[in-house]
Amino acid sequence: MKKLYITLSFVIASGILSAQNKDTKTADKLFDRYEYTEATNEYLKLVAKEKADNYVYQQLAESYYNVFNTKEATKWFAKLVVEKQDAETYFKYSQMLKAEGNYSEANNQMKIFSSMKPNDSRAKTFTGNPNYVSDINSQFKLFGATKSDISSDKSDFGAVLTNGNEFYFASARNTSRKEYGLNDEPYLDLYKATYNSNKTISEATPVDALNTKWHDGPATITSDGSTMYFASESFNERKGFEKDKMEYQTLKKGKIYLYKATKEGDSWSNKKVLPFNDKTYSVRNPSISKDGKILYFSSNMPGGLGGEDIWKVSVSGDSYGTPENLGSRVNTEGNDSFPFITDDNILYFSSDAREGLGAMDVFKVNLNDNSDAMNIGLPVNSEKDDFAFSYNTTHKVGFFSSNRDGVDNIYIADPICGVQATVTVKDAKTGKLLQAATVAMIDAKLELVGKAETSENGESVFKVDCDMQYAVQASRLGYENGVGTMEKSEGGKTSIIVSLEPIKPIITETEVILEPIFFEFDKSNITEQGATELNKLIEVMNEYPEMVIFAKSHTDNRGGDKYNMNLSERRAKTTVQYVVSKGISKERITGQGFGESEPKVDCKKCTEEEHSKNRRSEFMIVKKK
Fold first, then answer.
1. Is the pLDDT reported for residue 519 higher than 80?
2. Cα angle at 192 between 188 and 196, to 5 degrees?
């Protein structure tokens, strides 16, 4: 039914401009009336009679795409793309493949789409991160997902919960209603139920005061419960349709309009059509802000970025401003729909053009800041269509719809209490922020729940469960391991600082032993890691003011003798210059390169470990006191 609403909003242009003939006339009539189930039966008859061509394959692929029969859609798209098609065909094929869980082949089709439309935001997003599926699967889960007992064997979607525990949604469960030809289900009605304290939902009843003989719903309710905005068909209005005169039939094509109603007692009345509806485009999926001053909705009205975009309009009583497109932060060249604005200004919406697990995924964006929209991940999103997410901040519960079981059902989304834990690793002596430290989060069961390296600012960020204590372990070359603790939390953000003690040099009678000093390949400049170790040598020399050091630089045996000798000599000189630059007298330190002439491990076919041992710096004590 979600696909039905997209189809009613607009008709996608066919990639094959004209291939209709007397054989396809019956099927084409059904297709043009959106009666896809019956249309596929007629097209399949032509296949059985061996009268099918690429036009028939496309009509079959489009029909199955529109009713979200992913298995059959992929079958006919596969036949269709044997010959070159337009870019959108490859995009749709990719969507259906994703919905079937065939991500590898879906990526192949996206590569073709991206080559044909390289400037499309969908192409740019894909080429920027083609392995996005693993990223989504590994991210912290924001919600649990449980199928609601209010779901029926027909399409149910667009659930919203009011603060007064009234539960509204759209459903095709009324089997006494006329069936719609697209999917042979009854027309949609608005339903109302009661949300109970144990999270069950009582028996649903139709909102008879607002339901018509056409599709009705979904709806949004103002925070005080007094006003409803809902979707219905333009056929309710006089001349609320366009006539499409075709070769073999004239179609009346309606759109989806938004309406307003107010509550008097326990019933809804005063139904009014909103002024920015238009018979040339659809306006649907409303969501009203907490203060009732901004109405969000989706539409394919002119001025959008893609097929269907998310818009907003100011509301003041029965006066409305000019609709504003939410722009590329939310919208894409694809279909972006089903907006829901929470009381704290978080916008949830669904998109079929962003990085997702299936054909349509749920995303969220914080309108209080400039952050990017994010996929809310498993288990809300799946390989199938996931859409119409809503969240009640008072009851702390969300709802969404999905066809993962073959029909649009309503699911409960319980938030998972999570903590964003930022671990900062510092040098215990200097307070310096340490990059490239390894940080591990370990739970109460001693299981590793996350591991990462610190960034330039010395931080690693983890998303973990709240109400649980975690141990934090940090390590870095040249430092003693450090530990910290993340205490139990009620959620939100927390910070943990782990300070690492530098490993002190070992001083023998003949040598100051440091951790290995690494140079970049074929270079002699001092790296950050090398500077950390040399600083330890400087501390020792300051502690022993009469100490004199001879720095020896060695290479492994890869490369020619002369080359290695010159490289080690440059490194020895750079080492000496660094120490002198920190205030040590040049009379107290000298250096020399020895190339590969003094290996620590004498080997001809050396292992990488043996090469590493030979590639070293030594700091010999010439004089200690």
1. no
2. 140
388-433 confidence digits (pLDDT tens): 999 999 999 999 999 999 999 999 999 988 888 999 999 998 999 9
The span from the CA of 191 to the CA of 214, in Å, is 14
Residue 467 to residues 180, 259, 449, 487, 488: CA-CA distances in angstroms? 49, 45, 15, 8, 5
**How far is residue 282 from each of residues 217, 341, 432, 577, measured CA to CA in Å?**
13, 20, 58, 73
Q: Report the C-alpha gap between 171 and 166 in whole angstroms.
A: 16
CA distances from 228 to 173, 260, 274 (A): 22, 6, 12
Alpha-carbon distances of 202 from 29, 221, 390, 392, rounded to whole Å:
42, 19, 19, 18
pLDDT at 59 over 70: yes
Residue identified by tokens 């396809």 is 24
Amino acid sitting at position 133: V
The 10 Å Cβ neighbour count of residue 25 is: 13
Q: Which amino acid is at 470?
A: Y
Helices (H), 34-86: 36-48, 54-66, 70-80
Residue 443: pLDDT band (50, 70, 90) is very high
Q: How far apart are the first and last CA of the chain?
A: 87
Structure tokens at 87: 């870019």
For residue 420, which amino acid is it? Q
Ranges of beta strands (E only) in 367-458 are 374-375, 386-392, 397-402, 409-415, 418-427, 438-442, 448-453
CA distances to 116, 202, 288, 391 from 164, rounded to whole Å, are 51, 14, 16, 14
